[in-house]
Amino acid sequence: MVYRVCFVCTGNICRSPMAEAVFRARVTDAGLDGLVEIDSAGTGAWHVGEDADPRTLSVLAENGYTLTHAARVFERSWFARLDLVLALDGGHLRDLRRLAPTDEDARKVRLLGSYGPAGADGPDVPDPYYGGREGFEECLQRVEEASAGLLAAVRDHVEGPDRRPGPAGRAAAEGHTA
Fold first, then answer.
1. Considering the chain, what percentage of its residues have pLDDT values greater than 70?
2. Catalytic choice (51, 83, 127, 164)
3. What was the pLDDT predicted at 172?
4. In this predicted structure, which of 7-16, 24-33, 117-126, 150-159 has the lowest mean pLDDT?
5. pTM (2 d.p.)
6. Does the annotation mark 170 as catalytic?
7. pLDDT, tens digit, for every residue of 139-174?
8. Given a cut of 80, is residue 133 above it in pLDDT?
9. Among 15, 24, 142, 155, which one carries the catalytic annotation?
10. Long-range contacts for 106-113 (Cβ within 8 Å, ≥24 apart)?
11. How far is the C-alpha of 143 from the C-alpha of 63, rounded, in Å?
12. Residue 6 annotated as catalytic
């Protein structure tokens, strides 16, 4: 069973594609690529069909990440196929939860930053679009920090204690508790 994750920001050209690239690399490094599907989208249609912002692509490339991307808008119907929707800031969180067709779907929406250490701006990943390169570098740092915690949470979901190697995994598989 594949676990589906979608990162969402405003225009799908800066933060969410950056998060998509970073998390895809983390999932691949963890050997989970067949178990986790990663995507991104925006809440607005300003950049539909465009590549990621050149500053996003540059910062990603300089840090060893690759990205093939075309911006798109998050659609309400996607909730049915997604397991986790990661908003990049509180505004996206509110918009996505309002868009959710059911309470169960609204519970799928979380802040990416809640998986990492809260910075000066709290769990929001600040939008670098209107600033300089340093904003994109800060964005990458925040995304990388949150991706470690996110990977642990997703790993727990896709592997579960009964699928892990070692005594704890065997005990859970056999119905025993530690």
1. 87
2. 127
3. 34
4. 117-126
5. 0.88
6. no
7. 999 999 999 999 999 999 998 766 554 444 333 333
8. yes
9. 15
10. 108/79, 108/82, 108/83, 108/84, 109/85, 110/84, 110/85, 110/86, 111/86, 111/87, 112/7, 112/19, 112/86, 112/87, 112/88, 112/143, 112/146, 112/150, 113/88, 113/89, 113/142, 113/146
11. 13
12. no
Decide if 15 is catalytic: yes
Place of tokens 């699928």: 163
The token duo for 7 is 């990162």
Catalytic annotation, pick one of 6, 9, 14, 139? 9
